[in-house]
Design brief:
Blueprint lengths: L24 E5 L9 H5 L5 E4 L2 E4 L9 H5 L5 E5 L6
Antiparallel strand pairs: 1-4, 2-3
This protein binds iron/sulfur cluster (SF4) (2 copies).
One iron/sulfur cluster (SF4) binds next to helix 1.
């Protein structure tokens, strides 16, 4: 069978894609402002935000830096900055 470029050959392949490499901006959390409401977690298209100890934690392995989380945060607790550390 001939496989075309981009085809999915087995389940769960996206877990192996380190999409954080694509990122130019990274969301930095102001832990004083963040109240752990979870809105950013709901909006992140890559499911790379978790709320831990009532604070937002961004997974740098998968975060692509789109900025949706920062845009949707009602407390302006996220600021997009160049680069970004690896969270996990
Ligand atoms: S939306 Fe803002 S305040 Fe709510 S958990 Fe995310 S960073 Fe914190
Ligand atoms: S910048 Fe985009 S991909 Fe990264 S945590 Fe925010 S919403 Fe998710």
């Amino acid at each position: 069978m001939k496989l075309n470029i981009g085809c999915i050959t087995e389940a769960g392949l996206s877990k192996k894609n380190r999409t954080g490499y694509w990122r130019y901006f990274f969301p930095i959390v102001d832990k004083e402002k963040c109240n752990g409401c979870g809105i950013c977690e709901l909006f992140c298209p890559d499911s790379c935000i978790q709320i831990k100890d009532k604070k937002c934690v961004v997974n740098g392995y998968y975060c692509k830096g789109c900025g949706i989380c920062a845009r949707e945060c009602p407390r302006a607790a996220l600021t997009m900055q160049p680069g970004g550390e690896e969270a996990e």
